[in-house]
Amino acid sequence: MIIVHHLNNSRSQRVLWLLEELGLDYEIRHHQRDPQTMLAPPSLKAVHPLGKSPVIEDGGYVIAETGAIVEYLCEKAGGGLRPAAGTPDRLAWTYWLHYAEGSAMPPLLLKLVFSTMATRAPALLRPLVRSIAGQAEKGFINPQLNSHFDYWEGVLTKVPWFAGQAFSAADIMMSFPLEAAADRGGAAEGRPKVRAFLDTIHARPAYRAALEKGGPYAYA
Ligand SMILES: N[C@@H](CCC(=O)N[C@@H](CS)C(=O)NCC(=O)O)C(=O)O
């Protein structure tokens, strides 16, 4: 049985959704964030040295990194939600699997850190920290993010799904950046294709089933 180490309100929601779409049996081990720091609890470090989620256990393997987990599960399901090898769609699929965590998430993480920096600073320093963080957001982070958001809108104007004409695991992988971007950076405002993508995935029965099993998730 596949075991998913699921952190509440996190990227691992994608793995639950993928498993529901693929129809694979799984069991969830729930881990709760520290309400103050929002960091993962030590229980996750007992599973993998980095203590991040998602991590899955299956057949004696411990697998971390969402992209690696997605590849493993699609293979296990006999190539489900994965375009055929040697096709342009398969190349696009591989690209988006890597892009989601490698290129889209870093500026979104910067946005989260810089936009909350002042609230975590000592009261006296808050105006200064707010001003420095605001400059970083305005001068660097927001332009980077807008370039990614426009890129997604352009892609979804040409094809309905990230890897082409069919829904695939690449869309599941891209769901978290798009959800976080809509929440933190207004990505869906004035970008009808990004909005429609989010509305469409949120209506999928497997997405709803995964939400029920995973517990509270801020981005749906
Ligand atoms: N690139 C990794 C990122 C893993 C990651 O940062 N997970 C977050 C969940 S959204 C986490 O565990 N955060 C809690 C912590 O860092 O303590 C992946 O896609 O699996």
Could you explain how this protein is built, in words?
This protein has 220 residues and is α+β, with helices and mostly antiparallel strands. It has helices at residues 13-22, 66-76, 88-120, 126-158, 169-185, 192-202, 205-214; strands spanning 2-7, 26-31, 55-58, 61-64. The longest helix is centred in the middle third of the chain and has 33 residues, at 88-120. The chain starts with a strand and ends in a 6-residue tail after the last helix. The relative contact order is 0.14. The mean pLDDT is 97. Bound molecules: glutathione. Glutathione binds at residues 7, 10-11, 39-40, 52-54, 65-66, 101.
Throw out a few tags for this protein.
220 residues, alpha+beta, four-stranded mixed β-sheet, 4 strands, globular, binds glutathione
How much helix, percentage-wise, in residues? 55-70%
Q: Outline, from the CA principal axes?
A: globular
Quote the beta fraction: 5-15%
Task: Give the beta-strand count.
Answer: 4
- The residue ranges in which pLDDT falls below 50 over 5 or more consecutive positions are none
Radius of gyration: 18 Å
Distance between the termini: 27 Å
**In sequence order, what are the helices and strands, one letter per element?**
EHEEEHHHHHH
Q: What small molecules accompany the polymer chains?
A: glutathione
Going across the major beta sheet, what is the strand order? 2-1-3-4
What value does the average pLDDT take? 97
Task: Describe the sheet with the most strands.
Answer: 4 strands, mixed
Structural class: alpha+beta
Number of helix segments?
7
